[in-house]
Amino acid sequence: MKKSDRKSEIDKLWKEYKATKSKPTREKLILHYSPLVKYIAGRIATSLPQNVDTADLISYGIFGLIDAIDKFDPSRDIKFETYAISRIKGAIIDELRSLDWVPRSVRHKAKELERVYAELENKLKRVPTDEEVAEALKMSIEELHGLLNQLSYTTPVALEELWTISSDKNDRVSLIDTLEDTRVKDPSMIFELSELRGILAKAIDRLPQREKIVIALYYYRGLTLKEIGEILGVTESRVSQLHTKAILRLRARLKNIKSLLLGE
Question: In terms of Cα–Cα distance, which of 83, 82, 80, 88 is closest to 43?
Fold first, then answer.
């Protein structure tokens, strides 16, 4: 079937479903868009522990897809895939959070490391080295790298949320895309999103070169950690460490900016 014919068929399914709410029609739409769920689940799975089954992530994502199909308005000037991505990711993330698969001790360590990054950056007026961070935490470099490996399982969610705010090209999802009522445009919201994009872009620009490359390849090019490792000539574990450090630095930087703005 030609691409144009396939698109015409999908358009007909949308019109039929929105008019009748037919379950068989909805099932056809779910089947058509299910590869999107598999892709997103696969991306999220690359940064999760090996004991997390991708099949489970896909099942969580299907609920997000169904929610997106039910709430999507085909008359809006936006692709369904763009709208659905945030719903699918949200469903998977919400389920992972409800399972609470990350120990509290690991979450505490993540907050502590994030605090140290922020304090050292304020004190040194530059990005702190691993040695400086390890010293502040009273641990060895090896222990710091081990901690980063642990924390790599806790970081995917945060940046995905931040990145959706900063992306504005190639059908990437933004908060604006998920607003259900497009007739009402809040100028303050538009301004805040624009400011957030600029702040995040500057924060990313301040990252060490290798961490910046990892962020670009992972979130803009859609490469896996293994593929990035092959490009950089390092192990997948090392790429995971670089990714985790980049996330923590970005969090710390954004918190510092927030504190300055609020006068804290």
Answer: 88
Of 85-89, 114-118, 256-260, the least confident? 256-260
In this model, does residue 49 exceed pLDDT 80?
A: no
Q: How far apart are CA 54 and CA 59, in angstroms?
A: 9
Q: What number of other Cβ atoms are within 10 A of residue 142's Cβ?
A: 9
What tens digit of pLDDT does each residue of 89-103 get?
Answer: 888 888 877 765 556
- Burial of residue 173 (CB within 10 Å: 0-12, 13-18, 19+) is buried
Q: Which domains does the chain have, with CATH numbers?
A: 3-99 (1.10.1740.10), 104-262 (1.10.10.10)
d(CA 120, CA 23): 56
DSSP letter string, 20-32: H--HHHHHHHHHH
Nearest alpha carbon to residue 48 among 200, 224, 172: 224
Show the DSSP H helices in 72-155 as ranges. Answer: 80-99, 104-124, 130-136, 141-151
Q: Using a pLDDT cut of 90, give the percent of the chain over it.
A: 15
When pLDDT is averaged across residues 124-140 and rounded to a whole number, the result is: 88
- Residue 101 identity (one-letter amino acid): W
Torsion of CA 208, 214, 220, 224, to 10 degrees: -170
Residue closest to 18 by CA, chosen among 83, 72, 55, 54: 72
What's the rounded Cα separation, in Å, for the pair 237 and 253?
24
Q: Using alpha carbons only, how large is the chain's radius of gyration in Å?
A: 21
Q: What is the mean pLDDT of the chain?
A: 76
